[in-house]
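chain below, 209 aa
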Amino acid sequence: MTTAYVSTAYLGPVQLYTKFCMFDRIFVEAEENYLKQTYRNRCVIAAANGMQALTVPIVKPDTLKCLTRDIRISDHGNWRHLHWNALVSAYRMSPFFEYYEEDFAPFYEKKYDYLFDFNEHLREMICRLLDIQPDIQPTTVYLPQVENDFREMISPKSRMDDASFCPVRYYQVFQEKYQFLPNMSIVDLLFNMGPESVLVLKKSVSSSR
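prediction:
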């Protein structure tokens, strides 16, 4: 059984979801010290004005170090309404948004206390829609060195080369305006490609692995 470690992510990028196709068992890191400015509370979508980042606000921890599983979501700025409107605006003209709209809408109506729970419930739903079913579970202890460690590699600021990821092109709503934007949030792939999304994910796994 092949195993990999990843970080939790809010509507994580295509790169992350290729790992769910590659490995039999995935550990989602819950015991690390939380890192800011990562996919843990941020996703990037392809909107009418180009790439748009959506950030889930968090409650500032009382201490300098706080475990990811203990990070709370803030209600600041009516973010749920803003994020849902951004998704609707970016993808209402995509081929499959209406098909999946009722699956996603409840996550922007229900209040979650913890970021990890919110992310993982979204991830579970997306994996079900994609029909990919690896054994995914949270970590119970932090291990600094593990095999197939993507915890820091899959990051908007990462300079580490992921030789197992080679994004392939797929249809995007605004591609005539911006050309193809690789490694957007998984929702970009799902809303544009629907049931064929899993084929794109599998093709994006580099043969050099």
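Helices lie at 14-22, 79-91, 97-104, 115-130, 175-178, 186-193, 197-203. The longest helix spans residues 115-130.
thats it, cya
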